[in-house]
Amino acid sequence: MKEILIAGALALFFSLFGTPIFIKFLARRGYGQFIRDDGPSSHHTKRGTPTMGGIMIIFSVILAYLIAHLISGNTISVSAILVLSLVVALGFVGFLDDYMKITRQNSRGISAKQKIFGQVVAASTFGYLGLKYPDKDSLTPISLQLSTVRDTSITLGVVAVVIWVAFMVTATSNGVNLADGLDGLATGASVMTFIAFVLIGVWEFGQSCAVAISNPNCYQVRDPLDLAVLAAAFAGSCTGFLWWNASPAKIFMGDAGSLALGGALAGIATSLRVQLLLIPLGGLFVIITLSVALQVIYFKMTGGKRLFKMAPLQHHFELMGWGEVTIVLRFWIIAGLSVAVGLALFYTQWVAS
């Protein structure tokens, strides 16, 4: 528990006090956000706001996580290394997209196909390597079983696991990316989900088969406590960043941050064996992603009519006249309720068993 608190507190400190320094660095080089002309007109005032703040989130997490282990003397787990590698890889894909938008001074970064390709390659590598490196109990970072709130009896096989993990990571990273359209929206929702993973990791460790040996309902999960430490670092880093990202934002996380955070959420959920629980825990991201899918489907089926004034969903409410802060706060409430439902499902399964 001490390591969790240290990692969270250090990540909060590094992000809170490092972000304004990073803002000045970006501003001096003119690395400002480009705003699309076809979006809400209220966003035009945000043009030129420093972006790529996700780099600071990732840096704060890695530094805090390593220092926490240095202080505690505990070994860094393979599971955490794999998740961090996934985060860095997706962050690099997002950085390329952000950098090209800045240098071109338009909304065209890398192509959608290139972005998806980069995400799939990073996620597939994570899924494949996660099936390697068994510990003394023959547990690998990622299980061959499909998991809901815990591992089920459904065995997927190596190829199916890699495909499934690639889909999960790509969908989640794009979901967070779509939610990153209003100041603080994606950051605040991510904090809540990471805190949920801290609680799940601690609970799984306390009820793991290595600790609760006589309990037939114990969890067969590798490195749950260290994944809780990593989740705490992400929660702390996002919280510190939110101080500067809240409306009016002094910095945006950019694709470098949103793709990385989505990868972290999916990677931790996969490693904790709660894959399908990510749907309620990240309920806000699911809703926003569905709004885009429904908009496209409805547009094609009706020959050009729109279901929403604009997608993703948060922009629909902007065009209805809702204030940005109002939308963010109400969407945070939805995110909080979604996390509560996810944790309730996780605990209910334990009680019912």
Automatic annotation (TrEMBL):
<keyword id="KW-0808">Transferase</keyword>
<feature type="transmembrane region" description="Helical">
    <location>
        <begin position="153"/>
        <end position="172"/>
    </location>
</feature>
<keyword id="KW-1133">Transmembrane helix</keyword>
<protein>
    <submittedName>
        <fullName>Unannotated protein</fullName>
    </submittedName>
</protein>
<feature type="transmembrane region" description="Helical">
    <location>
        <begin position="225"/>
        <end position="244"/>
    </location>
</feature>
<feature type="transmembrane region" description="Helical">
    <location>
        <begin position="278"/>
        <end position="299"/>
    </location>
</feature>
<dbReference type="GO" id="GO:0071555">
    <property type="term" value="P:cell wall organization"/>
</dbReference>
<keyword id="KW-0812">Transmembrane</keyword>
<dbReference type="InterPro" id="IPR018480">
    <property type="entry name" value="PNAcMuramoyl-5peptid_Trfase_CS"/>
</dbReference>
<comment type="similarity">
    <text>Belongs to the glycosyltransferase 4 family. MraY subfamily.</text>
</comment>
<feature type="transmembrane region" description="Helical">
    <location>
        <begin position="76"/>
        <end position="96"/>
    </location>
</feature>
<feature type="transmembrane region" description="Helical">
    <location>
        <begin position="6"/>
        <end position="27"/>
    </location>
</feature>
<dbReference type="InterPro" id="IPR000715">
    <property type="entry name" value="Glycosyl_transferase_4"/>
</dbReference>
<dbReference type="GO" id="GO:0005886">
    <property type="term" value="C:plasma membrane"/>
</dbReference>
<dbReference type="InterPro" id="IPR003524">
    <property type="entry name" value="PNAcMuramoyl-5peptid_Trfase"/>
</dbReference>
<feature type="transmembrane region" description="Helical">
    <location>
        <begin position="251"/>
        <end position="272"/>
    </location>
</feature>
<feature type="transmembrane region" description="Helical">
    <location>
        <begin position="319"/>
        <end position="347"/>
    </location>
</feature>
<feature type="transmembrane region" description="Helical">
    <location>
        <begin position="48"/>
        <end position="70"/>
    </location>
</feature>
<feature type="transmembrane region" description="Helical">
    <location>
        <begin position="184"/>
        <end position="205"/>
    </location>
</feature>
<keyword id="KW-0472">Membrane</keyword>
<dbReference type="GO" id="GO:0008963">
    <property type="term" value="F:phospho-N-acetylmuramoyl-pentapeptide-transferase activity"/>
</dbReference>
<dbReference type="GO" id="GO:0044038">
    <property type="term" value="P:cell wall macromolecule biosynthetic process"/>
</dbReference>
<dbReference type="Pfam" id="PF00953">
    <property type="entry name" value="Glycos_transf_4"/>
</dbReference>
<dbReference type="Pfam" id="PF10555">
    <property type="entry name" value="MraY_sig1"/>
</dbReference>
